[in-house]
Amino acid sequence: MSQTGEKEANKILLYSDNSEFRGNVIEAVGVRPGAGMPKVEWVEAATEDGAVMKYKEGEFDLLILDGETQKVGAMALLRRLEVEFDNLPPSITILA
What we know:
This protein is an alpha/beta fold. The chain contains three helices and four strands.
């Protein structure tokens, strides 16, 4: 946090097995979503195990999940995180 108590960056976990999807989300939101808002620190994951590992490594402010990820979709990943961890951050699931 800065000296004023404002958060310097929001950490977002972005989960999708589609690199184009991840790139589009990052491009749409950007590194600073709006004037006066904190920057965004993006953490990308392409697999369920990768997402869980990255979730264990840091505290996230938001989860953005691709609802069409193959093998393990967004809802299944959220369920696993809910079972394994307490106090999940807000999440957004994007569907086509």
